[in-house]
Amino acid sequence: MALSSPGTGSDTGAPGTAVPGSPAAPRPTRGLLTLLLAGNSAMYALYIGVPGMLLALQIEDIDPADKVANFGLVSGISAIFATVFNPVAGALSDRSGRRNPWILAGGLLALPVMLLLGSVHTILLVTIAWCLGQAVMNIYQAAITSVVPDRVPLAARGKASAAVGLGLPIGSTIGALVGAAFSDHYRTGYLVFGAIVAATAVLFTACAREERMAPKAPLPVKEQIAAFGSALKDHDFRWAFIGRALLVLGYFAVAGFQLYILKDHTDLPAGLSPEEAVAILMPVNSVAMVVSTVLGGWLSDRFDRRKLFVGASAVLAAAALLIPAVSTSWPAMLAFSVVNGLGFGCYMAVDTALVTMVLPKAEDAARDMGVLNVANAGPQIVAPFVASLVVSLSGGYTALFLVAAVLSVLGALAVRPIRSVR
Fold it and tell me: What would the CATH number be for the domain defined by 1-7+30-218?
């Protein structure tokens, strides 16, 4: 899984291609925003429920003694695979001039791949199967992410981005609940997640009208690397990139190990299993995230202060990480979930707005927002390795919370040098 900024596709087309929002552009399908919400919710349900619950249980079942190291290895390798495969899948759908066939193919293939993942019994085969899972899901993700710039007029991009963004908390809640429901039968749980994605892909492609676009020529790798370096030469954009990377690294270093934290660090009440605890924490976190996303975006607009809200929300995320570091109680984890959701939700909403204000060139906005997505995806690759190393060396999770808190504070400080935005 890679967090991405919705609606960052190019608004300019090849010759003969209708620009979304222009008079020649096709009118969006009625109900497209609802379909986007459903499609992204299904995707995030699998992304959260599989690695956050079922995969962790399966790896623990195979090798309980080395579960932390193995989970970090599997998560890290699959994240590398996903990060490389996502732009490849996006380029393939660009060249075809179609999105729906790729959404349908990725969604339908999720079902047999999840069946395969649930049937393997070694760490090596789990790694291979989950990499295949990342491949088919990134075919799906790359195509559905491109629907907003392809089919939504500019005037409706805000609502479309909100529909896409709400897929994360809604999908996270579904993923946690389904994962907990099938924690004792994770092979069946894999099939349920595959079926959810497959059914949603069929629904989306059946209901969302699509007109073939002019195929786009692929951008050579050399030009992509040059574009990446060019964007990071800009002072303000570079600091925004660094801040995002640091905070995402701290967030996912902890989020990826949530089940093991509940098993090995938290004193749960009698009768509450770690799987049930995840099913409680995730909706709580999601509600807090939705509230702070809406409120933080509105307040930052009202007061025209982006840096203040970005920095404050990053510090709030750091404060949240200190709660379970000083207390192993269940109420502490509940408090952490609420405060962490408030901090991270506000950060992602306002920081995305901030980044759009420090883009080096308006004509390269889509390209540079793609560069920003490296700050989302890259830390997710590194996070499992960092987390497993910290836990292994320290012998527990307290040090992991402290390291993640330091990273969040550094992320808050990184916005201070930005000059062009208040």
Answer: 1.20.1250.20
